[in-house]
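Our preliminary data section would be incomplete without showing what the modeling component actually yields. Below, a chain of 415 amino acids is followed by its predicted structure, encoded as tokens that our downstream tools consume directly.
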Amino acid sequence: MKQLNPLNKLDLACFLRSQLYLAPVLLLFYQQNGLSIADYVMIQGIFQLTGIIFEIPCGYIADVLSKKKVLILAFVCFFLRAALWLSFKGVYIILLGELFNALSRAFLSGVYDSYIYDYLKSTNKTRRMLKECGRTNFAMSGGAMFAAIFSAMLFDRYGTIILLSLEFILTLISIILLTTLPNPPSAKPHAVTLKQKFTEIKDTAIATLKNKNINIYILYSALLFSTTSLFCWCFQSLLKMSAAPVFMFSFVYVINHALRAGFSYYVNRLKNFFGLNRLLVVTTFLCLYSFACMILSFYFKLPNIACLSLIFVCIGIGFQLAFAIANINHIHTFALEETRATISSVNNMLQQTISGLSLICFKFVIAPPSGMQGLSFAQAFFVFGAFYMAFFAILLYKIYHKKTPQTSKQPLPLN
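Predicted structure:
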């Protein structure tokens, strides 16, 4: 029997770990534990911000230790969430489980792309970086899509216990699979002590913000990521408020991840066809269209309109993911090898910051404290859409009028 390529093993592990059977009905699980729709949105924002606390330390750990070990840690944290929610109930258990989830995301986000690059570098195939990252994202979306097909049916028949049990078992198998991965050679960071590392992080972050080849793209990608988070975490709220049947929760989730998988798999072709800047323009237009769909859906609150609108929103999310993957490849082109994972973490930290703040602000816009009257979901999406489009217009102007050419491949300095 032919042995699996290490990157194929990584893809298989990600496919298994990404089978999130609970995700399509997570809002219903929250409500079973005494939380409201507004609480659901706010908690996701809080734990996106919590992930920031872990993001750069996780990137540094990946630079110092082997990236294989950090990948395993990421999967173990998610395994602990499933084990916790299987064993206990209540609001505080939900919060602790989401804390493990935030830690898992932080470990994974700054590491998997760096592991892929290190492995390809060890085999002199770095030009395959964009394609391999696309395949890994395809595996993640494919796993989520596969799970969503059965999620609603299993929830209706057996409740959340079977969903969490499946996540528990599949994550354990994926952890075992990760232990068989090799440790590709990787450059060590300059810093050796904690104080030196924080200095290096500061210098790397400043250099990243000053580098004209990547700074605007990192900010733009972070803003697009935050719109995707806002859309996705309001999918279930929209379906619930529209009195949609449970199977629609799974249907929309399947469509979302089917499109994500497709855009991830063909990201290399999309990048070559559009180019990075034109891909960004198309993604921005679809983001504007997605805001319009969400406004109309929350205004009418009809299940069929909601479902159809969310399908169109998912197309925009697919383009956003394609741009995000292409942008990661763009960042790696200009990053020094020994700080690659740290720079990836800086990029992800900015995404989590803007996304978390956006979700928390959205909660207080629709459900302000002290019994004040909040905006409706439709009104809130109109306000947030106008805010984002203003930022996108400014950044697009800067991209198309900057003096430094995008093709200048000068490595990112440390200070």
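Residues 229 and 355 are 6 Å apart (CA to CA). The chain has 16 helices and no strands. Preliminary results of this kind motivate Aim 1 of the renewal.
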